[in-house]
From TrEMBL:
Protein name according to UniProt: Glucose-6-phosphate 1-dehydrogenase
Enzyme class: oxidoreductase
Residues binding NADP(+), per UniProt: 12-19, 46, 144
Originating species: Amycolatopsis minnesotensis
Pathway: Carbohydrate degradation; pentose phosphate pathway; D-ribulose 5-phosphate from D-glucose 6-phosphate (oxidative stage): step 1/3
């Protein structure tokens, strides 16, 4: 399919996301011929990074570092289309002119605006987009957090809707752009094997576990104002829960998926602060830019219940945090025991349930944890694992990085993997009890698994990660 000419405007163009993901992603998309043939990219921000030349040179460095297959000639060709124009909530006129000029130069072009700015600037920037005409006929991509509680998300949505129709808004949750996350839908709905057992009759617990080894990596201001609960739980972790738990959609398209996600989140019980554990790693308060009395949480573990027919009584355990022992994105579904106990400890039966495990890493993997007969003269049991490694199953396939995939979807006007205003508000509503009455922040050691209370939260079976 050929896409019409585009002018991309990236707000926050000298920021971390732009450097690590957006420019490398756009570069890779051009290289694989997936961007429109004709385009301009205008980077923007409050402060000028110097001349366009200097801006491009800085970008070249980042793209070289983050995009894998850098090539000077391809870069030069791509970089010709990039320029920089300062802007702020108070002043967007020059940027608006620059965009208009670029549109003219291309003989008419669609506008795609990417707002990657600190949470506090979001609303004033949206207003500016409206006032300067930049918003006209444009699509807008937004980065989370979408507000910081129910009330502010409602205000933000109302402000957005004054300037953009919902169809032109693309709220990014980059986890949904991950190949491995979309695979949850493929596995659930394209295989007769899984769907019949995907319910409370067969599944006894679910874990959504996203520990991270990294600390805050210079993002002190962000962590201090946002915290891990708002950064990760009300966003990525709930979105994973959404894909795992939703009812089969009528079709796999934006409307049907959104309908099912809406129904699902309606059925999620508002969180109980008594079943939420907050942690902060020891040493966090010494990080540069962090208040020495800070109570920001760098770790969260919690229990979630879905009160519908499919999931009634099945606990969902969610966990994520910084400075932990391993970086993982692991989803585990634990199955019920067989109805009769034919084996016991003497046979090597340890009572551990079967588990279906998604590893949502860049090299995604699916594991089924089974019990099987250990070869030998008697019927003794042991654990055995069935593995599917997607990079082996699909040799030579070229996975897209999450942001690449999502940028492409915006260009195709496909909102399937984006979150709606209503959904965002419902998620904040579910979180309200915790935001209003947050649990104490418990200290934990770097390189461990968070506070002891979080280890206990998952019950007798404990967390699957790390595997014993
Ligand atoms: C971001 C969060 O959205 O996701 C970060 O703001 C987090 O705190 C990151 O580290 C994790 O994303 P990924 O794709 O690296 O797993």
């Amino acid at each position: 399919e050929s896409l019409e000419p585009h002018v991309f405007v990236i707000f926050g163009a000298t920021g971390d996301l732009a450097r690590r993901k957006l420019f490398p992603g756009l570069f890779r998309l051009t290289r694989s011929g997936m961007l429109p043939g004709e385009f301009r990219i205008i980077g923007s921000g409050r402060h000028s990074p110097g001349t366009d030349e200097e801006f491009r040179d800085r970008l070249a460095e980042s793209v070289r570092k983050f995009s894998g297959d850098f090539d000077d000639r391809a870069w030069d060709e791509f970089a010709k289309h990039i320029s920089f124009q300062t802007s702020s909530a108070e002043n967007g006129i020059e940027l608006a002119h620059a965009v208009e000029a670029a549109q003219k130069e291309l003989g008419g072009a669609r506008k795609l605006l990417y707002l990657s700015v600190p949470p506090g600037s979001m609303q004033p920037m949206v207003r500016m987009l409206g006032e300067t005409g930049l918003a006209e006929d444009a699509r807008l991509i937004l980065e989370k957090p979408f507000g910081r509680d129910l009330e502010s998300s409602r205000t933000l949505n109302a402000e957005l809707h004054k300037v953009f129709d919902e169809e032109r808004l693309f709220r990014i949750d980059h986890f949904l752009g991950k190949e491995s996350v979309q695979n949850i839908l493929a596995l659930r709905f394209a295989n007769g094997l899984f769907e019949p057992v995907w319910n409370r009759q067969h599944i006894s617990y679910v874990q959504i576990d996203v520990p991270e080894e990294i600390g805050i990596e210079g993002r002190a201001a962000f962590m201090e104002s946002t915290g891990t609960f708002r950064d990760m739980v009300s966003t990525h972790l709930f979105q994973l829960l959404g894909f795992l738990a939703l009812e089969p959609p009528v079709h796999v398209d934006a409307d049907s998926l959104r309908t099912e996600k809406r129904k699902l989140f309606q059925a999620v019980r508002p969180l109980d602060p008594a079943r939420v554990v907050y942690g902060q790693y020891v040493g966090y308060r010494d990080e540069e830019g962090v208040d020495d009395q800070s109570t920001a949480e760098t770790f969260v573990a919690l229990e979630v219940w879905v009160d519908n027919w499919r999931w009634k009584g099945v606990p969902f355990y969610l966990r994520t945090g910084k400075a932990l022992a391993q970086s993982r994105r692991t989803i585990t579904l634990g199955f019920q025991e067989p109805p009769l106990k034919m084996f016991d400890a003497a046979d090597g039966f340890d009572g551990a349930p079967n588990e279906l495990v998604f590893e949502l890493t860049d090299d995604p993997k699916l594991t089924i944890d089974l019990r099987a007969k250990r070869p030998g003269p008697s019927l003794r049991l042991d654990h055995a694992e069935l593995h599917l490694r997607f990079s082996e199953a699909f040799v030579n396939a070229e996975p897209l990085e999450a942001y690449e995939r999502l940028l492409l979807d915006v260009l195709r006007d496909d909102q399937t993997l984006f979150t709606s205003a209503e959904e965002v508000e419902r998620l904040w509503e579910l979180c309200t009890p915790v935001l209003e009455n947050p649990p104490d922040v418990l200290p934990y050691w770097r390189g461990g698994w968070g506070p002891e209370a979080a280890v206990k939260l998952a019950g007798e079976r404990g967390w699957r990660v790390p595997e014993k």
